[in-house]
């Protein structure tokens, strides 16, 4: 009962995939995927916007785009792994706020800023472990658990600071959060992000641990019987999500120079939207990190282009929502069109 | 005759026993404890006319949302768009009052509910025909509906002056000491409870939620039920939007923001299992009462209301842990009986 999917659809989807995939030549299997579709869409939007939207091709646009999407980029990494196992974590933005508030409160209380940052990271780790404990050891559905901890962590963050904000952080730290590499156009914060992204890509795509993540998402029972340590894997993933969210919280605090209880309110939905847009299946067992990174950047680029073209945030909301719906609805729509064009020729699945 | 008399105490006893074991009793008890504690510290919490009114008035909108949400969750779906639907229908209602002042109030109310049903149907159609999970679809429409409302509303907001005073006075009026809006929510609750308990269609919601593939094999109208569940949730969110206008008079862009999680939280606290197939709308409604009453009670207990969301989070986690413990115990008991 850990998957968000009806069992019947899951098994049929799995069988379809494993046969159809290997029926095609290698180059098709590599190039014609959900992930490359997102990358193509990203490149197309960038080219189109550079040609039509004034100022979009300026380097400063990219700098601010990257600075703005960094929290989403960071949190999307562990979120991808969690969704591939068939679980979900809605509490990430609340963990971000909790870390941000603790960082601010501890620093304000006279603690050295490094210690405050480390304690905030530790709090994120504990928060992630609490999620992991409730999901794996107690055996509760992650959707319900993390709706609970979403309220709990945000509640503690708001409770600690009320409506006040802490804003007096040392300049050296706040400058670091928006400085560029060597005075160029790429923000410095991309360095830790790229390191982290490579670590996550290696972890997911090139280690037995990563194969275990896919196995859990495909069929948890089968994974357990083939020796995947399901409880340990999920525990580690939720802990990582807490830790990375806390790191994003510290970055968020420094970037905007403000530690507040309502920091990044609702960010969890943006992260999940970006991950799903990047080709990760909400049913688990499917998806890849390069696609997710492209998905986050795609939403960021569209938002930034629309903003430069003088559209307001509401249009960006509509576009994000439509993209998300279209990305999950399009396979069914294409299959439906295919069935109409070739009636009776395609094999029908039983019980469909 | 004598057998009937003899049988009666046994049936009342078993009825009493099932009442005590019901999931709703526990949550009701929690609600009464919160109410009792707050009242013991400050009698005005319950016994002043304002306190009595707020007890019923404050939760009424969330009750309507939670009832709709419970219906969707019972079919093993979820509707994250209700907060945005509430905002959009509240805005439609307000615009109709401003743009067509001559329109009778009940037409405006029906229009608000109708828009809600339409938005719910869009969710339902996408979920049923695109075979996509409700979580993703309604997350998408959450953004779209909110975006439509914002781009339509722009920066203008609707104020109490634009709304007919008869409609606003309905929002604050009472019948026999019970606020009218609370009566609306009770009617919604009663109708939904009867439909889910006694009607064939309602029972099919539970069947669909407990085992979707079995429902398909059994020949239940799965698509139709999914559409009805989402249309009902949308329509109730529409009604909640209309109630929002009656209650507050002003509609800003933030109307209903984040309400979806409160509605899901109320349903989960009230014992509606997140994977469908069990729970009642009554439980969800009591969950909504518990949430809002805690919110109002915290300052009286000497806790700053900033901590309210933390308490709500603990409650949700406590409720699902309790459900899990109860389910495990039931499972063990059944296993023991079988052996």
TrEMBL record, chain A:
Which terms does the record give in the GO molecular function aspect?
transmembrane transporter activity
Instruction: Note the topology in the membrane.
Output: Multi-pass membrane protein
List residues traversing the bilayer: 37-56, 62-83, 90-107, 113-139, 151-169, 189-214, 235-254, 266-284, 291-309, 315-337
Which InterPro entries does the record associate with it? Answer: ABC_transp_permease
The record's annotation in CDD domains points to: TM_PBP1_transp_AraH_like
Question: What GO cellular component entries does it have?
Answer: plasma membrane
Q: Taxonomically, which superkingdom?
A: Bacteria
Q: Name one Pfam family in it.
A: BPD_transp_2
Where does this polypeptide localize? Cell membrane
Keywords for the protein's UniProt record, in alphabetical order? Cell inner membrane, Cell membrane, Membrane, Transmembrane, Transmembrane helix, Transport
What the entry lists under PANTHER family is as follows: ABC TRANSPORTER PERMEASE PROTEIN YPHD-RELATED-RELATED, AUTOINDUCER 2 IMPORT SYSTEM PERMEASE PROTEIN LSRD
- Indicate what this protein is called per its UniProt record: Autoinducer 2 import system permease protein LsrD
Which species is listed as the source? Mumia flava
UniProtKB/TrEMBL annotation, chain B:
TM stretches of this protein: 26-47, 54-74, 80-98, 105-129, 135-155, 167-194, 227-246, 267-291
Instruction: State the organism's lineage.
Output: Bacteria, Bacillati, Actinomycetota, Actinomycetes, Propionibacteriales
Q: Does the keyword Transport apply?
A: yes
Q: How does it assemble?
A: The complex is composed of two ATP-binding proteins (LsrA), two transmembrane proteins (LsrC and LsrD) and a solute-binding protein (LsrB).
Keyword match Transmembrane helix: yes
Q: What is this protein called?
A: Autoinducer 2 import system permease protein LsrC
Query: Organism, per UniProt?
Result: Mumia flava
Where in the cell does this protein reside? Answer: Cell membrane
UniProt cross-references to PANTHER family, sorted A to Z: ABC TRANSPORTER PERMEASE PROTEIN YPHD-RELATED-RELATED, AUTOINDUCER 2 IMPORT SYSTEM PERMEASE PROTEIN LSRC
Bilayer topology: Multi-pass membrane protein
Q: Which Pfam families match?
A: BPD_transp_2
Its domain of life reads Bacteria
InterPro entries named in the record = ABC_transp_permease
Record's GO cellular component terms? plasma membrane
Read off the CDD domains from this record.
Answer: TM_PBP1_transp_AraH_like
Provide this UniProt record's keywords sorted from A to Z. Answer: Cell inner membrane, Cell membrane, Membrane, Transmembrane, Transmembrane helix, Transport
Main subcellular localization, coarse class? membrane
Report the function annotation for this chain: Part of the ABC transporter complex LsrABCD involved in autoinducer 2 (AI-2) import. Probably responsible for the translocation of the substrate across the membrane.
UniProt-recorded Gene Ontology molecular function terms: transmembrane transporter activity
């Amino acid at each position: 009962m850990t998957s968000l999917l009806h069992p019947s659809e899951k098994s049929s989807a799995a069988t379809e995939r494993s046969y159809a995939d290997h029926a095609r030549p290698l180059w098709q299997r590599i190039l014609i995927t959900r992930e490359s579709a997102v990358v193509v869409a990203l490149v197309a939007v960038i080219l189109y916007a550079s040609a039509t939207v004034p100022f979009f091709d300026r380097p400063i646009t990219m700098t601010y785009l990257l600075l703005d999407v960094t929290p989403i980029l960071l949190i999307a990494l562990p979120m991808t792994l969690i969704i591939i196992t068939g679980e979900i974590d809605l509490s990430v933005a609340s963990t971000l706020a909790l870390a941000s508030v603790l960082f601010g409160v501890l620093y304000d209380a006279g603690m050295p800023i490094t210690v405050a940052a480390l304690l905030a990271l530790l709090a994120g780790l504990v928060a992630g472990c609490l999620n992991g404990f409730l999901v794996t050891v107690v055996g509760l559905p992650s959707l319900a658990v993390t709706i609970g901890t979403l309220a709990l962590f945000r509640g503690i963050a708001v409770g600690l600071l009320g409506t006040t904000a802490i804003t007096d952080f040392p300049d050296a730290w706040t400058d670091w959060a928006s400085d560029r590499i060597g005075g160029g156009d790429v923000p410095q914060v991309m360095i830790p992000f790229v390191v982290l992204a490579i670590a996550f890509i290696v972890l997911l795509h090139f280690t037995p641990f990563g194969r275990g993540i896919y196995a859990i998402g495909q069929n948890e029972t089968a994974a357990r019987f083939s020796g995947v340590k399901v409880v340990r894997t999920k525990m580690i993933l939720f802990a990582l999500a807490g830790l990375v969210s806390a790191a994003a919280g510290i970055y968020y605090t420094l970037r905007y120079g403000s530690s507040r209880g309502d920091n990044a309110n609702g960010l969890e939905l943006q992260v999940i939207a970006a991950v799903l847009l990047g080709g990760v299946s909400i049913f688990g067992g499917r998806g890849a990190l390069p696609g997710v990174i492209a998905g986050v950047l795609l939403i960021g680029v569209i938002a930034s282009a629309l903003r430069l073209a003088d559209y307001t945030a509401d249009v960006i909301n509509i576009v994000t929502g439509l993209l998300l719906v279209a990305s999950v609805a399009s396979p069914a729509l294409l299959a439906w069109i295919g069935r109409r064009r070739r009636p009776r020729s395609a094999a029908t699945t039983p019980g469909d | 005759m004598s057998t009937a008399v003899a049988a009666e105490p046994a049936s009342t006893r078993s009825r009493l026993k099932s009442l005590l074991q019901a999931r709703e009793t526990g949550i009701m008890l929690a609600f009464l404890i919160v109410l009792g504690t707050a009242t013991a510290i400050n009698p005005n919490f319950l016994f002043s006319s304002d306190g009595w009114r707020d007890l019923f008035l404050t939760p009424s909108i969330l009750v309507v949302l939670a009832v709709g949400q419970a219906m969707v969750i019972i079919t093993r779906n979820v509707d994250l768009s209700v907060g945005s639907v509430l905002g959009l229908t509240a805005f439609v209602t307000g615009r109709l009052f401003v743009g067509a002042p001559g329109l009778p109030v009940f037409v405006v109310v029906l229009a608000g509910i109708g828009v809600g049903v339409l938005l719910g149907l869009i969710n339902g159609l996408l979920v049923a025909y695109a075979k996509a999970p409700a979580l993703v679809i309604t997350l998408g429409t959450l953004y779209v509906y909110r975006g439509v409302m914002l781009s339509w509303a722009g920066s203008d907001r609707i104020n109490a002056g634009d709304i007919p005073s008869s409609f606003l006075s309905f929002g604050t009026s009472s019948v026999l000491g019970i606020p009218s809006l609370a009566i609306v929510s009770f009617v919604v609750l009663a109708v939904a409870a009867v439909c889910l308990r006694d009607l064939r269609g309602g029972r099919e919601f539970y069947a669909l939620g407990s085992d979707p593939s079995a429902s398909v094999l059994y020949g239940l109208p799965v698509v139709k039920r999914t559409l009805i569940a989402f249309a009902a949730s949308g329509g109730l969110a529409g009604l909640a939007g209309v109630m929002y206008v009656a209650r507050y008079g002003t509609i800003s862009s933030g109307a209903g923001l984040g309400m979806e999680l409160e509605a899901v939280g109320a349903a989960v606290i009230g014992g509606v299992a997140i994977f469908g197939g069990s729970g009642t709308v009554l439980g969800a409604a009591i969950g909504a009462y518990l949430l809002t009453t805690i919110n109002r009670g915290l300052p009286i207990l000497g806790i700053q209301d900033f901590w309210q969301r933390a308490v709500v989070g603990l409650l949700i986690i406590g409720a699902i842990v309790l459900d899990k413990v109860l389910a495990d115990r039931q499972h063990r008991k059944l296993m023991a009986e079988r052996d």
